[in-house]
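Journal club prep, notes for RB
We'll compare a predicted complex against what the paper describes. Inputs for the adenosine-5'-diphosphate case:
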Amino acid sequence: MATNERIDHLERLLEVVRGLTTAPDLPTFLQTIISEATELTNSELASILEYDEDASELRFLAMQWFERDLLRPMGVPLEGSAAGWVFRKGQPLIIQDVHADQRHFKVVDRMTNHLTQSLVAVPLMVRGHVVGVLEALNKKDDAHYTEEDLTILETLGALAAQAMENVDLARKVRVSKIELAELERLKSDFIAISSHELRTPLGLILGHATFLRELAGNQFSDQLDTIIRNATRLKEIVESLSDVDNLQNGSARVRGNKVSMTKIVEDVASSFRAEAEHRNVILRTECGDQPNYIHADQGKITIALSNLVKNAIQFTESGGHVTIQVSEDTGYVKVIVLDNGIGIPARDLPHIFERFYQVETHLTRRYGGMGLGLSVAKAMIELHGGRIWAESFGRGSTFTFLLPMTQRGNPDAPTTPFV
Ligand code: ADP
């Protein structure tokens, strides 16, 4: 082959490579492959066949336009056809004289009123699997197919296979996204329905148990305290569930006021002091002397911080310590909850803010909880235009969140719009 011709071939192959990302759709791209395969190998025709798993035969996926209606409905068997041989063996094939070879499938010729004389065919491979066949028929001027033709067809075949694989992957991603959205919807529905249905009976249990506790005096007080304590715990879980649900479906509202983050930290620390002492964990605050004003829904920020502090105490062994720090950081109030407890493995860190995610599985868990605390905290911080993240390097964990400060000079004005 002359050098100029070879350069021309290479340029045309490069153009096909570009089409892999620029072609508007798979049929257009495969049509380009067909016409380049025909022209570059100086053949009369070319076609791409794809394996149809259900029918266990090959089907025409791309071909010259004038053959479309005839070839589309036609199946090519794996036995007794050249394309089938290439598919089964995963090897290329050149047949210079089709009449002297048993492998040619004559039905296609009869249907298309075409006489095949010679052919060259290559398997289309995707990650080691054959998914189809690219073939060119009848080298013009009675010439023989060469190794050069085979190389061209192999290059085009690899591009066709890649394009088919891309489309298949895109389809799988679409299907997975739809399935995921459906699962997410089911999860949300389940949360919404169960939290709603549990709230009323739980309220009744708590109300009546508290009433009985007052009536009974010392009699049965331990049993009634146990009922009240556990019903209260259940109520907290139900509230977390509906908090997450409201935040997810966008019905949560922030009723913002000017509040001091320093005061929230001191209040939360006081409410956990008894529990920390009970577990022999030292609970400290480092707040400085600034009020650190934010424009926020105090209840929601208190819940977010409480969830972090509760975890920090829970996941820290006896003798350990938990510190809550507040400071100002370039227009934001920064709150850090750090502990020297069991820490969080690196592989779990990216997931701990997901709903129901727990480092230990339910079966092996030593700690209580539902895997909701952090997702609630994250949603509440983000609802206020803030950001939250976690770090852990072997031992201990650090949770940090930032909330926009109220602007200086106009302390009542929020820096982010609230509903
Ligand atoms: P749960 O209510 O089950 O504690 P969370 O959403 O609050 O759920 O936390 C998710 C998981 O993150 C926990 O189960 C725990 O494994 C891990 N985790 C959270 N905080 C800490 C911490 N301070 N130290 C170690 N692990 C933590």
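Talking point for the session: The longest strand covers residues 129-139.
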